[in-house]
Amino acid sequence: MEPKILTPAASCCVKFCGGCNPRYDRRQAYEAIKERLAGEVRFEFAEDGKRCDMLLYMAGCMSRCTDLRGYEAARGIVTVWEEEQICAAVPEIRRRMNA
Amino acid sequence: MALMTGAEYIESLRKLGTKVYLFGERVENWVDHPLIRPSINCVAITYDLAHDPEYSDLMTATSNLTGKKVNRFAHLHQSTEDLRNKVKMQRLLGQKTASCFQRCVGMDAFNAVFSTTYELDEKFGTKYHENFKKYVAFVQENDLTVDGAMTDPKGDRGVSPSKQQDPDLFLRIVEKRADGIVVKGAKAHQTGSINSHEHIIMPTIAMTEEDKDYAVSFACPSDADGLFMIYGRQSCDTRKMEEKADIDVGNKQFGGQEALVVFDNVFIPNDKIFLCGEWEFAGMMVERFAGYHRQSYGGCKVGVGDALIGAAALIADYNGAQKASHVKDKLIEMTHLNETLYCCGIACSAEGYPTKAGNYQIDLLLANVCKQNVTRFPYEIVRLAEDIAGGLMVTMPSAADFRSAEKVPTASGLSVGEWCNKFFRGTGSVPTENRQRLLRFIENLCLGASAVGYRTESMHGAGSPQAQRIMIARQGNIEAKKALAKKLAGIKD
User: Is A93 inside any structural domain?
Assistant: First the structure.
C-alpha cells in the first residue's frame, strides 16, 4: 500500500524530560527527527491540557521519569531514551500517523 | 505575573536599592560589577531554563497555594516525587553552571518555615502560618529570589546567644512595637544574598528560654532600611577585573557569591514575622532547614562534579593520556564518588514524608549521611582531577603571555606568545588555547573562585561535619540495632 501523504496539520507534541543527566543530546535528537519528518508532521511543544494527535517523549535516560498522565494523544506515545532509538522513532511516528 | 526570564530578573535587581560594600567602598552599580555579575548570571539561568521546554519539567511545578505554574525554587514540596525532582533540578543546574547557583537556600527556607509555623500555631494559637502562606504566594506570584538566611556570626562558640559579650553576635529582637519588631545583628556567609529580592531570616541553633529574644524568624526586602551587605572575597577573584579577562578566569560566565548581611535596627512589620520569642520552635526550624539543605547538596555538588569529571576526562585526551589504565581508573573512581552523593540525595528524597502542614520533608538520617559524604567526596574528586590534569594547571603563564607579540631577543626571534604556544601544546590536533582554557577551568574549580562553592562550601555549608554526626547519632536507631544483635546471638535478659 502506498504510504499516505499527511498534511502538516497532523500534530505531534514533543515532551522533554527534565534533563537532570541525559545520556544524549535530546534537543539535537529532536531536531533530527523533526527534519526527517518535515512536511509530514507538525511538531509543537507539549503543554498541560493541550491535545495532540500523538506525543513524542524525549527522555534523557532509561528511567523515563516524567509523569505523562496529564497528556492526551489519540495515536499514542513514542518514547526515545537513547541515541540508537532516533532512527527507529521516525518510521514509528510515520506509521502511527498513517494508522 | 508570569515567570520571569533571566533578563527580566537582572532588570528587576536594578530596581532594588540594595546596599553593597566591596573592597571597603559602596558599590552603586553592583549588577554590572565584574566580580559580582557571574553570580547573578547563575541565578538568571534558573529563570531562563524554566522557559525552556527541554528543562521546564524539572524547573517548574504547580503551586499548591494558587494552582499556577511556578518556578520550582519557590515551590512547597507536595510529594516524594517533588523532593526527587528538586535534587534532579539541582544536578542539572550544577552541570549548566559549574557553580553555586544560590537559589536553593530560599526554597529550603520556604519548606522549613512552612511546616514549622503550622506546628507552632497549633501549640500557641499564633497566626504565623497564615502570614507565611501569604508570603510564599507573594514570592511565587512575583517569581522572586529569596535568601534563606540562618548562620549568625556566633562569636564565642562556647556560650549561648544571650551570654555573648557582644549581644549582636546572634541576630535578635531589640524592640517590640504594636505594628512589628526591630531587629539587630547579622547573618554571615550568606549565599546569593546580594542577588536576592528578599530575605527570610531563621535562628541558627536550638534555644532555651533565656535566648528567647534570639528566637526570631521573618522576611524582609533586601533593600530594607538599615540592611546592608559586605561582599565576601574569593580565591583569585580579582582575575575577573583584569583587562580582557577571559581564559584566566576559568569560568567567565558563572560563579557563586557569599556576603555578610548586617541588620542595624531593621523594622519588620507583623505580617512578615514567623517566629517571635517562641524559643521552643527554634530547634525545629533549624533542623528542618538543615535537613533540606543537606539534601540539596546531593544534587548541586553532583552537577558541578559532573562538569569537573568531564574536564578531567577531556584534559586526559588533550594530554594524550586517555588510554593510560590509571587515568581510566581515576575517572571511574571520580564517577563512583559523585554518583554515591547523588544516591544519597535521591534516597533521602524517596524516603520523605508529609509534615502536619502537608508539605514533604526529607528523611533526616539519610540527608545527614548525604551531607557528611559531601564534606569528603568533592575533596577526593578534586584531588583526582588535579592528578589527571598535571601541574600545569597552576604553573601556566597568563593568557596575556600567550597573546603577547613581544619578541624575545634570542636566536630564534620568537615572541613570548609563540614560545608559550610552542611549549604548552598537548596532542597535535588540539589547539593550545583549548588546553589553556580547560586547565584554567579545572584550576577555578579546584582552588580558584569556584572552589569556594565546590570545596569549602561542601565542608561547611548546610552545617559543618560535626553537625551531621550529631544528627546521625540521634537518628541512627542504635537501640534497635542492639536488639537485633541480641536476638541473633541468642541473648535473653
Answer: yes
Task: Give the cell for residue B327.
Answer: 587515568
All cell numbers assigned to B179: 505594628
Whole-structure pTM value: 0.95
Q: Do B57 and A66 touch (CB under 8 A)?
A: yes
Which of B293, B360, B370, B386 is labelled catalytic?
Answer: B293
Q: Using alpha carbons, list the distances in angstroms from residue B156 to B152, B168, B171.
A: 11, 12, 14
Residue, of A1 and B383, whose pLDDT is higher: B383
The tens digit of pLDDT for each residue in B214-247 reads 999 999 999 999 999 999 999 999 999 999 999 9
Q: Which chain A residues have a beta carbon less than 8 Å from that of B89? A: 18, 20
- Bridge partners (DSSP) listed for residue A45: A14
Residue B258 within a domain: yes
Tally the domains of chain A.
Answer: 1
The SS3 assignment for B336 reads: helix
Chain B residues with beta carbon closer than 8 angstroms to that of A27: 54
C-alpha cell at A62: 532509561
Whether the CB of A27 is below 8 Å from some CB of chain B: the reply is yes
In the predicted model, what is the mean pLDDT of chain B? 97
On whether residue B488 sits in a domain, the answer given is no
Place of cell 542577588: B195
Residues from B contacting A (CB-CB < 8 Å) are: 53-59, 81, 84-85, 87-89, 91-92, 95, 306
pLDDT of residue A4 exceeding 60: no
Report pLDDT for A70. 85
Q: Are residues B59 and B128 in the same domain?
A: yes
Range of the domain at A25: 11-98
Is B326 marked active-site? no
pLDDT digits (tens, 9 = 90+) for B440-477: 999 999 999 999 999 999 999 999 999 999 999 999 99
Task: Return d(Cα B129, Cα B118) in angstroms, integer.
Answer: 5
Q: Which of B57, B81, B306 sits opposite A17 (nearest CB)?
A: B57
CA angle B260, B220, B287 (to 5 degrees): 70
pLDDT at position A98, please? Answer: 85
Chain B hits for A67, Cβ within 8 Å: 81
The number of distinct structural domains making up chain B is 2
In which domain, by residue range, is B426 found?
287-478
Query: Residues B279-298: what's their mean pLDDT?
Result: 98
Cβ neighbours of B91 in A, within 8 Å:
20-21
